[in-house]
Design brief:
The protein has 389 residues and is α+β, with helices and mostly antiparallel strands. It is 26% helix and 27% strand.
Length: 389
């Protein structure tokens, strides 16, 4: 079987999950991190990628972070290869906030969508508003709206800011129905580090999601996918406010960061489901676990560590981070490791990701406690990695 082709802002997680089940990959990656290069034939995307760059043979292509914002490339990949995702027209619908708001309205008060506006004058209420780019990803190009009298760029729109807890819900839509295969809670962003407020900070497994809400989401996703004619896998992001109201935020019709948690926590493979739903033969795969029930004992989380200042990465710094790629323990019940480790001889700008901290525990309470949060604060301390005061 030919290696899968992974394309996006960061392909390490998908490449690592594929390798664990015996499938090789080739990555076209914005970061081309050091550990990604150990997992796959990895090329850094320094210019516009063309479908022809993948060669004349038909390839299985898994879209990763941000590729949904490059619809011309998406279309060409779908024409010449097997891209594991919806059509361009389906992507446009799934990413259109006004279309989603209309479908939530039709669904009734069981599911809401934050109020929207196209123009600044339509935001003249007491509510707080966000200004969002239609090409946003990972919380980038999303900010609180400050009315200074000017209109935002033409690719932006206004959305009422709703306070609450956000969740990522991974759904599989096959020929029969939609089922939810994983729910993760998004880690809350803070502003104490001076970074953009709405950056994606990470996710943690969630096993206490309200079943009634879960069923409601599954029905809505099924109706939407049926209307669009989409059969495959996607992630729906939702928010629950303090009163219990459920809001749809967006759909991501590609491999997402939180899907790594779904893959790690399951004895099956979400990745092979991508291919099977597209009609591709995957063949036998390796079992990641010596014991088929092993995964049932673990909960996982991941936190993105961002640079709080411009950082110069030299070989010693990169080596220091690489030394933490294997699981290490805190006490007897929490394990952690680093991933998405940058190559040396580069500068990481303030606000850009440095690496990812992945943790696991047999106790979800421990995983979500202050202990790993304290670990994250330690790893976010420049002196830990970079020897700076």
């Amino acid at each position: 079987m030919q290696p899968w082709v992974l394309i996006g802002a960061s392909c390490r997680a998908a490449a690592e999950c594929l390798k664990a089940i015996g499938i090789e990959s080739e990555c076209y990656d914005r970061f081309a991190d050091r550990d990604t290069r150990l997992l796959a034939d990895c090329k850094r995307i320094d210019q516009d990628l063309q479908a022809s760059d993948l060669g004349p043979a038909r390839r299985i292509v898994l879209p990763c972070g941000g590729l949904e914002n490059q619809l011309n490339l998406w279309h060409e990949l779908q024409r010449h290869h097997c891209l594991l995702g919806p059509t361009v027209e389906q992507v446009k619908r799934l990413r259109d906030p006004f279309y989603l708001a209309d479908r939530c309205l039709r669904f009734g008060r069981r599911l809401r969508f934050p109020s929207l506006a196209n123009k600044r004058l339509e935001t003249k209420t007491d509510d707080q508003w966000l200004v969002k780019s239609r090409a946003s990803a990972g919380g980038l190009r999303v900010a609180r709206f400050v009315d200074d009298g000017s209109e935002p760029p033409t690719d932006c729109y206004f959305q009422r800011h709703v306070v609450g807890q956000a969740f990522g819900v991974v759904c599989v839509r096959d020929s029969d129905a939609t089922r939810i295969v994983h729910v993760s809670q998004q880690l809350n962003a803070g502003t104490e580090d001076g970074l953009p407020e709405f950056l994606y900070r990470g996710s943690i497994d969630c096993n206490s999601f309200n079943r009634t809400i879960e069923d409601r989401i599954a029905v809505f996703v099924d109706l939407l996918c049926s209307e669009l004619g989409y059969r495959g896998i996607l992630q729906a992001d939702f928010l629950i406010d303090p009163s219990g109201e459920v809001y749809l935020l967006e759909f991501n019709p590609r491999w997402t960061s939180a899907m790594e948690l779904a893959e790690l926590a399951s004895p099956g493979s979400l990745l092979t489901s991508f291919a099977e739903l597209a009609g591709e033969e995957v063949g036998p795969i390796l079992n990641r676990f010596d014991n088929p029930t092993e995964s049932a004992h673990w909960y996982f989380s991941k936190r993105v560590i961002y640079a709080t200042e411009d950082l110069q990465i030299d070989e010693a710094i990169s080596d220091r981070m690489m030394s933490h790629r294997g699981w290490e323990t805190i006490g007897t019940s929490l394990y952690w490791r680093l991933a998405d480790i940058p190559m040396f001889e580069q500068t990481i700008d303030r606000g850009s990701p440095v690496c990812t901290l992945i943790a696991k525990s047999e106790s979800l309470q421990i995983l979500g406690s202050e202990e790993p949060d304290g670990l994250c604060r330690a790893t976010n301390n420049a002196s830990y990695f970079f020897g700076q005061s």
